[in-house]
């Protein structure tokens, strides 16, 4: 099954958007524009059989259900939301672990992230990495083109 590895900050909203707060229900990310591009990604992947594997640091704060219902409701309606292993500190190693455990071939996954330096030590992942501008995220024709090409 095709899988998009998704970072959140700098991909679904500018990296400067959002404040982490702690309330009675635990951590929450607040602020105007948080996950503002989620609907755009949901529209692009709609009608495709695809997993969205979150490799963002958000996995340390939220479980898959919370991410799906609170932050990614439209994406959760059109794709299966999965999390990478939160016990692995490195983003690249989390992606590699997920790829290995799911036996994904190179053409079965794409990585969206605004921090390409996180993947410098995992050279096998670099051809699958779409480096997003941390201000524009997926609101960039180059990024959208790569995602649409991957989904064909």
Can you walk through the features of this model?
By secondary structure, this protein is α/β, with parallel strands linked by helices. It has a single domain (2-151), classed as Rossmann fold. It is built from five helices and seven strands; from the N terminus they run E-E-E-H-E-H-H-E-H-E-E-H. The chain has helices at residues 38-45, 64-71, 73-78, 91-102, 141-151, and strands at residues 2-6, 19-23, 26-30, 50-54, 80-83, 109-113, 129-131. The strands form two sheets. A five-stranded parallel sheet has the order 5-4-1-6-7. Strand 2 and strand 3 form a beta hairpin. The longest helix is centred in the middle third of the chain and has 12 residues, at 91-102. The radius of gyration is 14 Å and the shape is globular. The mean pLDDT is 96.
What is the fold's blueprint, element by element?
Elements: E1 2-6, E2 19-23, E3 26-30, H1 38-45, E4 50-54, H2 64-71, H3 73-78, E5 80-83, H4 91-102, E6 109-113, E7 129-131, H5 141-151
Parallel strand pairs: 1-4, 1-6, 4-5, 6-7
Antiparallel strand pairs: 2-3
